[in-house]
């Protein structure tokens, strides 16, 4: 089957309980992706768990644990065909313990919907998610001002939320005047897939229409093949199947590849045997596609999440050390030399040590060479050393493999991009 429509990966982010999962569930139901029978089943299930009204959220929150807690833990994917795109919808957790999964989601997205409740407005996590989207290179975003039913569909409530969110967006370097703000109610279905009659003052698109208003992402198919592994499965009759999103390049059956760093740290060579996407075998796949692949010469013990499938002819680098541009978002104290937090790069999580603070620019615009420490709001050029094997490329070589978030004690403290890399010698 030939793919006729371009793919668009859309992530829904936002503070916990601001209605992301419900909005997506409603979108799926109103666009006919879920039958009324299925919804009735979910309704009964929601009541059984004492979560009446959560049925739309249950569409995405398939995991039992999530149903009982009423929060989205892992990323869930749904496919939706619009007039223009084949959309993969990623529902990212809003709960702070799950931000690491949220980072993976944002790193796979082309576009994003930031969801905010008209009732509760901007929350600490709203800010964190905006910064993450920015660092992860998601340029195209729209804002769902949700729960309009809870503020009696009043235009003033919408405008107030819009002003508050705009300030946060501006702070992270987005231009609010170029962003669409949608007035919606995921729970009641206002302006999700169908136009609402409750807000005659609202002239904007529905969520479904907005998906088609996003610009198609340019596919970096001209860059070498890079596919960070999300997971590795053992499938009866096929064998080992690494799964992930192709960040750049094109993957073809018969192609010679190397997986870096691999369990050995020196890379594992192999050849692409089969490529599967949405349960269909494909002769090839390209940047933007989420695929499962079977690779000749690669077993389950050889590879893990965070490894990267590269074109054997032009592999990525494993960093000995690297220089990065880092923005400090919210560190409880200060960052000094020797600090070793966990870096989230594509799907990898590797501790890296700050070995040199080269220069910094403070929020007021003043600069300093070799500062003693960095604090919130500072943007700095720093030298880092991975404690372990980390596949990383520079912004100039491959921006898709250069971005990272820095987390410590359950919070995102900073985010940045790699600008120089010193490759590890693979003996």
Q: What does this 3D model show about the protein?
A:
- The protein has 427 residues and is of the alpha+beta class.
- It has three domains: 7-213, 3-Layer(aba) Sandwich (Rossmann fold), CATH 3.40.50; 226-311, Translation factors (Elongation Factor Tu (Ef-tu), domain 3); 317-423, Elongation Factor Tu (Ef-tu), domain 3 (Beta Barrel), CATH 2.40.30.10.
- It is 19% helix and 37% strand.
- The protein has eight helices and 25 strands.
- It has helices at 20-30, 36-48, 55-60, 64-69, 99-108, 124-135, 155-171, 207-213; strands at 7-14, 76-81, 86-91, 111-117, 140-146, 180-183, 226-235, 239-245, 250-252, 256-260, 268-277, 280-282, 284-286, 290-296, 308-311, 317-328, 335-336, 342-345, 348-361, 367-369, 373-374, 379-386, 391-392, 403-408, 411-423.
- The strands form five sheets. Strands 2-3-1-4-5-6 form a six-stranded mixed sheet, sandwiched between helices. It has a six-stranded antiparallel beta barrel with strand order 7-8-14-11-10-15.
- Strand 7 and strand 8 form a beta hairpin.
- It is globular.
- The chain starts with 6 loop residues before the first strand and ends with a strand.
